[in-house]
Protein 1
Amino acid sequence: MLALILFAGAAALTGEPIVAPDVPSASDVRAARNLAVALAEVAAAEEPAPVTASIADMEGAARVLTNGVPRLRLSPRVADDALAVKAAFRLSGGTWLTGGVHIAEVEDYGYPQISANIGALPIPTLLLEPFLGLAHKAAEMRAGTRFPTTREAILAFEAGKGTANVILDLPRGFMKGVSKLAPSDDAIDGRLANRLYVAAHQRLDGQSLDLPQVYAALFMGAPRDGNAARAHARAAMVAAAMLVVGPRTGRLARDGEDSFSPRLPATLSVTLAGREDLAKHFTLSAALAAAADPAIGRALGTWKELDDSLAGGSGFSFVDLAADRAGLRLGEAATSPVRAGTLSSRFAAGVPELLPLAALGFGEGMSTRAFEHRYRDVSSTEYAEAVARIDRALDTLPVMQR
């Protein structure tokens, strides 16, 4: 009997996953970016501000998010004065935990009525409110900062004609607080990253630099063995991004931005294969791979190029993508104690090549129309072969070999 009850309970909470979404298009990436920018602007505003999203925008953003987090499925719908979002998360063993949330407008255009479900079990509003309160307290404890409650953050909501409108009141620092919710048990030492940044900046400032020189400076005197080598290498990846992209990338390390000293000029003038943009692509990708799942870095690099392919962008660039993938390899190497020690030795011995000259011959400047005509989308065999050509070129560099 107990086994039957447990089985029935599990069946009520789980179910079939939402159908896998199509791969994101360039317009999906632009929709996701616009929504992210809108939320960031609300968090930076002094007063509450409106955010409007069409169902097309939300579906596009959902495709982008689920492309970056394959274990997650999202399906938004707008109908009958409400926004409904179905969700599924794949657990270990392949089982899917399913659920959803239903947000309905109220007559006075104020705080909406929110209900939810887990599997087939409904969670009415009266039960959901205490649950949201517990989740709110847990988030505050983990991030070490105050978050607004849902009632404080959502001042008004309405939906209809395929569009959802919400007025939000998000405090300054909200986005920074959200970033602290990520698991931090194996976070990069932000204070070490900042010390490396300061020391390299003072050593290199005023010089015309190629990117390998920056990494060589960051690895001077680095440990060669074990976890000490790994900790240094991961911090060096973030410090390089701080030097080349900007100090805000210190957020990728634990308390990195908090320990940053603004007394120095923000960045150095650094090139990779003669181009500053490639140095930025490389260092940011390396820092992302060292700080998080490299799959996130790969997805972000692809999304960036899709967005660039739209009108007003610089076009889809396989050269940029090559710099992204090269940086990801270096960042992945930094996460292994053995390979991190090898990196220290190689950079101490000189300034190894980080991007093969062959990569500069890959296609770039492609519009969305040109990209789709040749490759259809990023799931096609033709696109996979183009990426494989990049990886084969990277395999020729000793520092990039896995």
Protein 2
Amino acid sequence: MTGLDPSSSLYAQPPLPPVDPALLTVDVLANTGRRIAARASDMGLSRWFWGEGVVLLGLLRLAEATGDPVPPFVIDFVDRHLAAGIEPDHVNSLIPGAACAWLYRETGDRRYRDGCVRLLDWLAARTDSGPLEHWPGGVWADTAFMAGVFLVHCGRALDRPELITEAARQWTLHAEVLGDPASGLFAHGSHRGETIRCFWGRANAWLALAGVEILEADPSLGHVRERLAAQLTGLMATQPSHGVWDVLVDGHPETRGIIETSATAGIAAALFRAAALNVVSAEALRSAGWRALGGLHPHVTENGTVTRSSAGTVLQLVPFGYSVIRDDRIQPWGQGLGLHAYAAALVTRSCR
């Protein structure tokens, strides 16, 4: 193919050897999750933004899976921002509100309800009949999670099922723009009305996780189930033998072998949770989930850092753009999606 540049791919650091999933016992999963949580809590996170929101929800998911109390970090973080006043300025400012909704369900404290309503009012003023734009002129997979998961949690906490319906509508609209009918995979985003067919790993994680959140809230949504089943089937078909997907999940030659752990963590969490919903064969979903976690596990350091998570990534117009995103620093979404993965694995292991 003319113009391909595999130079980054040729020099990609290979993945660490995977561990046997049988070694990932309840104790190993819980201890690893707690290490990831401690490292995330020590990162100095302070913004009311998307990476922080993924961490907050991941901390709550892990605490629920381990039977631990609500982490003080989550309460302190949310309380501090509520006291200062939440001023959302982007759809990425919505996902911390999922923690607000969770705390309202836990405590009944109206401060958390008011925080949700403040964010919902901001979102309602920007919602029309089409898909929410991530940036002007661009529909991104990220939004289906950042806005959609927030809507699901608010819908459940505030007893407003129409919010879950809106989350499902947005998920479906995003799937129509970004989905590839042949593979079931999702592209990262569109630019000025054109979908850029780069099947970014974290985009697939965002949509898969948002899909299971919606179906857990309303299992009757057959159109979401059908599209999610096609996506997860496509992801299972492209999963490497070592378990960890590339930064572009379709094996594109410009990114082949450049692994991405945050995407793998998010997809693993979705696979485990989709298995509980019987989205497709539960056995196949769990098998792929354990393969993903077995590959991810060696990339978690003793101090709880999830390594090989790529930095924040704007929409790239060509596949090569995804081959040069740095992955040598700790990232909040790497920690947060790692928490989602270990929490979902722990629930799966505990139920068997």
Protein 3
Amino acid sequence: MRPIRPPFPTGRGRSAGRTPGSRRTAFRPFAAVALASALALTAGACSPEDTQASDKPAVNVPDLGDGKIEIPQELTDKLKEYGIDLDEWRGGAWKNWDKDDWLREADQFINPVIEDLWNPDRMREAEEPDSTVDENDISGDQGVTDPTPAPVQAAEVSAPYSDAAPASGKLFFDGPKGTMVCSATVVEDPANPGKSNLVWTAGHCVHAGKEGGWYRNIAFVPSYNDQALTGQDLAGAAPEKIAPHGLWWAQVAKTSDQWIEQGGQTGGNGAPFDYAVLKVTPENGGGKSLEETVGTALPVEFDAPAVPEIDSITATGYPAAAPYDGERMFQCQDEPGRLSIVASDPTMYRIGCSMTAGSSGGGWVAEGSDGRPALVSNTSIGPISAGWLAGPRLDERARKLYEAVGAQ
């Protein structure tokens, strides 16, 4: 949910629309809440201003061929184009969120790997940034909106997650208000069958929308907290239990033009186009793709059936706002309804679900046209009081964005 949109990405989301005439707020990305020891999200103790950049760790892009970490000339040239010195960036220059210097255009995404930046302590100490949630009327009286769905209590996913939901994980990133988190899903790459490095999430988990630009230090942790540890067990857990498949940095990211032009931290603007695709690379290098590493990737369905033809949708995520703590994975399964924010925009899917901020970006799965489970949407918005979630219905614009990332 918006943040369930950034800064709901684990920040909190904005609220999704309710029945016509009602008011709602958007979840914003959930500030990356402290991992109790290695990466858990719990409102923690230090703001981004207090966070140090790991003693200037090396900033490099792992080479998937031989495992060595290198800096592609293309990335170095792109940084220079925007007046960014790589050494200064890795030393903490990425913390400069001056509006005039915040890259925001679709082709301006840069995310150089900062080795060891996302260490257990940093994730544990991160806190949710101070913020307020404005209520915006996004009632669906201009289009087709079904009655508000009955709340569905989210069920905790059985551990280990690497067996129960291996394509799901948590997304970490930095924004002006703090370190944040969202949820995300490993998806197939038609250009590289069986060897995908693509991850699907919400647009608000990677880009601030009309008032900002691209977030920084975006990294994906598949099967985060694989054993569903809590409390002291999580605080003392070995890194491989928190991140069993390692840390994967986004090297390519694309979200919709509509999200960049219209999106915001609250309300429903841009929500029908609130999706993003990442191409990732492992921080520590290695020869295997993400799909090979986790053992699966979901197909993406761009011709999903209309709402009346879908029996159920399952949403997965790491809700971090109360009563959840962001450390464990949950799912909601419900028959979808329709939510229209603007009559001229695509109508969104909506389901009953108790998940809160932090679940933003998590995948929505239904039976695809070929009978296999497929990703058909992602968590975008929901009411601040929880009870339901809404996600975009993917169309040809989403398909073109997805294929463009795979081609890079």
